[in-house]
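WARN retry 2 of 3 for item q-0093 after timeout on previous attempt; input resubmitted unchanged.
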Amino acid sequence: MFQLFKNFPGLIQEIKLLFGTKPLEKEDIDLLNRFFPYYEKLKPKHKDEFKERLAYFIASKKFIPRGELKAISREMELLIGATAVMVTFGFRNLKLKNFSKILVYPDNYYSTINKTYHQGEVNPRLGIIVISWRSFVEGFMEPNNGINLGVHEMAHALKLENQIQNEESNFFNVSAWRNYEKLAKNEMIKLKESQTSIFRQSASKNIHEFFAVSLESFFEIPQRLKDYDEELYKSMVYLLQQDPLVLSN
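OK item q-0093 returned
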């Protein structure tokens, strides 16, 4: 009974969002069709689900301008939100609830904590995802290089959401993660030994970074990734419960 009352405010907020979320406008959908190939390739029924989840994501997150950015545009909300929905699309009810704020800087920003410039970061303790808009847009301007800041940061958020103890945690299939992790560690060894790899060197830092980098390739250059290592690609399809190569199926 105590737990019911403890969760009551959250339940009220969830109900408000479910029934009060404003559907996407025609202009919003036109933008997705122009700039978000993942959405454009979906079957009609999956497009409907994508639109519903995107509208909910935008309504449930607080988008905050930072630095010299004075306001958050509708385009920013749509494309950042669409990236989050794409990365999480295989998990039907996943909303990244731990992350309530999206901070957007106009360009790379200086961190006073580690005295360096960043393009983006995820802070689970504060419940924030931080994005450099310039770097985010660059990820869409060059869709075939396997580098996409939005996917990278949403991948970190996805992995952390799976680990954080809340009503959304532990959604990764355990055996799927173990298989992916085994293959990932083999690839990290190759990178550390300077062997040829489809992934950039930063992916060898740790499993968290490899996960984020591998998701960039998974969504940006899925066929190249599959041709490079079909076993790793299939492990990611199983883990993420979706296959970018068969969106229209």
